[in-house]
Amino acid sequence: MAKKVNEKKTFNRIKAVIAEKGKTNRWLADQLGMNPNTISKWCTNQMQPTGETLFSIGRELDVDVRELLVKTKWASPTH
Q: Does 76 have pLDDT greater than 70?
């Protein structure tokens, strides 16, 4: 099945976790000392945070860093 050309891939759940925690993008930006536009780009998956930044986001939101990423299930290779 062919994918749509304009189909966006979702890599992170930062927007969902911020909402689940009752916080805002601006709050997270203030906690991390970052520009709110950067947080917005992460939330829309236009840009992705670094691994180190993901851990900082997890710490500020009090979640396991894995909760910030979209779950994947990879097929096991056949031997």
A: no
One-character DSSP codes across 7-74: PPP--B-HHHHHHHTT--HHHHHHHHT--HHHHHHHHTTSS---HHHHHHHHHHHTS-GGGGB----P
Above 70 in pLDDT, residue 78? no
Find where tokens 């950067």 sit: 38
The Cα–Cα gap between 10 and 68 comes to 11
Entry field: residues in the chain = 79
pLDDT tens track for 2-48: 555 566 789 999 999 999 999 999 999 999 999 999 999 999 999 99
Nearest to 16 by CA among 78, 69, 72, 73: 69
